[in-house]
UniProtKB/TrEMBL annotation:
Binding-site list for AMP: S46, R51, K72, L73, I74, G99, F100, P101, R102, Q106, R169, R180
UniProt-listed HAMAP family: Adenylate_kinase_Adk, Adenylate_kinase_AK3
Primary site of residence: mitochondrion
UniProt-recorded name of the protein: GTP:AMP phosphotransferase AK3, mitochondrial
Binding positions (GTP): R136, V145, Y146, T209
Region (LID): 135-172
Provenance organism: Ursus americanus
Amino acid sequence: MPPPGPATMGASGRLLHAVLMGAPGSGKRTLALRITKHFQLQKFSSGDLLRDNMLRDTEFGVLAKVFMDQGKLIPDDIMTRLTLHELKNFTRESWLLCGFPRTLRQAEALQRVYQIHLVMNLSVPVEVIRQRLSARWIHPSSGRVYNLEFNPPKAVGVDDLTGEPLVQREDDRPETLNERLKAYEDQTKPVLEYYRQKGVLETFCGTETDKIWPCVYAFLQTKVPQIDQKASVTP
């Protein structure tokens, strides 16, 4: 992660703490990249944090790898400790969490340390997600994602930057996808209700990221400064 810079305030003059939620394949990563390109928010992706810590063999990375090698979910407390440890270095910046929290316990632990001002939830039909994920391939070491339908690699089966082979995640395959989506819904339903009761939840519905993005952009314009005030909504 880059070093902290000058304090970045939301539109109200305070630091903004935001969360981006959405099922696997809902377009979180694409939207998070667009948000941080246009707005003064530091992005924290739970997947990126895990990969970085595993590559560096940190305490968190070693612990996470043990569970992942066994095909198990990483326990709440490890993900919470990892995320809070990283956020300690960014006390003077507004930030966007992507992929965390995913459980009510994680949300409550986060709230005990930071006030969450805004939660954006992406609601995409299950059939659209199934179609997206069946065509999704990833570069494991970087986390770069390709889609054979709308974002294919330049050469079939290899990463654009490294030339290394792409893989399809085991849990993106049709036989495991339904179970994965059901698990996500069961986990996050209480989280969404938790934030709804706090009055900070905003849901964006759609079938295409390019159509959801202008709504997210217009909404955030009232919440956090843009990097370039003259910039357009163009991704």
